[in-house]
Amino acid sequence: MSTMRILDGGMSRELLRLGAELKQPEWSALALMHSPHIVRRVHEEFIAAGSEVITTNSYALVPFHIGEDRFQQEGAELIRLAGRLAREAADAVADRKVVVAGSLPPIFGSYEPQNFQPSQVQDYLKVLVENLDPFVDIWLGETLSLIAEGEAVRRAVVASGKPFWISFTLADDEAAIRGGEPKLRSGESVEDAASWAASSGAEAFLFNCSKPEVMRAAVETAARVFRKADAQIEIGVYANAFEGETGEAAANEGLHDTRDDLNDDAYSRFACSWAGAGATIIGGCCGIGAAHIHRLRNTLLG
Asked: Which Pfam families match (predicted)?
């Protein structure tokens, strides 16, 4: 049986809490440009809270957020900085190993599977992979909305020889919360995504940046597919704390409000449910901070 591993939480609101400027469209990339020391502090706070895996602040380092010109001129340097800050924070821990995951985001926008461009995606992923590679232990393709985005990440990282994890974001509308078949935001089924993952070579298959209420059904579906395929793939969850339906707006159209009811105790109860369904990698996404991670770590690991 796999040992439980604790991820970090969402970067952006922790940056805000510590005084960094965030505004759209650059979003968390602004902190790398203007206050990288705060990025390092966020990594350190998550580690102190119990995170065993921290994720590079490279999610917004794509033309979708920083623009094509800036990506071409400054992208490589900013990506290396994101990798270095995470690596330094991890290496400063003397009593345990902290793993650095290289964030590979949806290149053409979060929750926007219709914008995926297969002919161009590798050009952008290559820049991220080449410049993060010296600093990361594993790859994390995250907030992916369609299976083709997962396959693009697999292709981009396979030559590195490092393990890779794939994380999809789920439809989390009222129908999904009421117990409909778990689906990606593209409309593809979690069952089909898990079947793809079973033969992809991925070390872990995760769900992120969706409401916690829809995660357990997805975990159960993935676990069933993997048992049937005899696939030894870990399952993970890191939900967000967004109000409303997160698929209603593009990722750079504003700041989602976060839920008042999803405190650290409530989130840890969800985490226990996911663990009970078979998840062995658990953390948080947007709006889930260091206090949430501290509580779920203590709840899950004692």
From this structure: S-methyl_trans
Domain count along the chain: 1
Exposure letters 145-172 (e unless 16+ CB within 10 A, then b): bbbbbbbbbbebbeebeebbbbbbbbbb
In a 10 Å sphere around its CB, with 0-12 CB exposed, 13-18 middle and 19+ buried, how is residue 95 labelled? exposed
**For residue 155, what is the domain's CATH number?**
3.20.20.330
The tens digit of pLDDT for each residue in 261-275 reads 999 999 999 999 999
Look up residue 37 and give its two tokens: 């020391």
Q: Which residues are annotated as a binding site?
A: 209, 285-286
Which residue(s) pair with 237 in the sheet?
207, 282
User: In what order do the strands lie in the sheet containing 138-144?
Assistant: 5-6, 281-284, 234-239, 204-208, 164-168, 138-144, 99-104, 53-55
Whether residue 300 has pLDDT greater than 60: yes
> Which residue positions form the known binding site for Zn(2+)?
209, 285-286
Q: What is the pLDDT of residues 236-263, one digit of tens each?
A: 999 999 986 554 445 555 566 789 899 9
Per-residue pLDDT at 42 exceeds 60 = yes
